[in-house]
Amino acid sequence: MDSDPLIRSYPDIGERAFGYKGRTLVSIFMYLELYLVAVEFLILEGDNLDRLFPNTGVKFAGLYIGGKTAFVLLTALVILPTTWLKSLGMLAYVSAGGVMASVLLVGCVLWVGAVDGVGFHENGVLLNGGGLPTTLSLFTFCYCGHAVFPTLCNSMKDRSQFSKVLLICFVTSTITYGSMAVLGYLMYGEYLKSQVTLNLPIRKIGSKIAIYTTLINPLTKYAVITAPIATAIEDTLVFRNSRYLSILIRTVIVISTVVVALTIPFFGYVMAFIGAFLSVTVSMLLPCLCYLRIDKSARRFGLELVLIVGILIVGSFVGIIGTYTSIKQIVKHL
Questions:
Q1: What is the secondary structure of 41-63 as a DSSP string?
Q2: Is the Cα dihedral 34, 39, 40, 45 positive or negative?
Q3: Which among 29, 60, 35 is positioned nearest to 261, based on CA atoms?
Q4: How far is CA 243 from each of CA 49, 85, 240, 248, 257, rounded to the nearest angstrom?
Q5: Rg of the Cα trace of the chain?
Q6: What is each CA distance from 305 to 214, 262, 298, 318, in whole angstroms?
Q7: Do 13 and 1 form a contact (C-beta atoms < 8 A)?
Q8: Would you say which domain of life the source belongs to (predicted)?
Q9: pLDDT in tens, 244-301
């Protein structure tokens, strides 16, 4: 972005590096990744609400809608108004609640293990080679925020602070994700489900707080994730400044994610697919390729070039193996 002040978004970077084809490629992978993350949020809500309120259903127009389906639809209705906000500055306050919720969630899981009697006694296999592709895919998914970085940077009052923001975000994410992974495995070992909240004893107060906290995250982050998709669609239309058209586009996006979430309700496997196929491409491969293309000095042989090539090789390996494994699991469970 420093090489060209006209760069406002991730697709702009792709165009600066590889022309129109680069812009198209970046756009496809970026928006598809963001779209599927939004789908994941709905699946997460449906799973946890169904865990919290089992055997719940509603009748609508003579049709009974129960379980996860009802909760996914309810979640979409609650989230919908937040997607109509166009200012990322306003969304930032909503999203900040999600950050606090993530930290609180780790604390709740620790409380359940240490105080509510679950304990940290599970043992398992130190290294399971068969699960490595899925593990690497999930790990990559944890760091897939690159698609919105340029948009966030341009929304800041002081862009010079962006590097500090990134450092704080990555360190905080690593601590929270790492803590949750270790706690979940020590508590439930091989029996750990795709979401640790689905393992927690439902009658314990710590478990209920953990599940309620998990439910807050999608509500606070969904609009931020889908905002770039809606903005990209609006910018291609003649009536791009129409408020009613903007609301219609964002509503259609929400409806479509609901349909996908109900069709493929496999949280872990969908997350693994996003991590392997999309997150690896958007967050590892494309940034390296664009950087090498834009900055000629980076192509000179040295430590930087060795590291970049190493990232490209590792990313390609994780992407190919992880994508194959995740698609195989999704098809198997359909």
A1: HHHHHHHHHHHHSTT-EEEETTE
A2: positive
A3: 35
A4: 33, 10, 8, 9, 22
A5: 21
A6: 40, 44, 6, 20
A7: yes
A8: Eukaryota
A9: 888 999 999 999 999 999 988 888 888 888 888 998 999 899 999 999 999 988 899 9
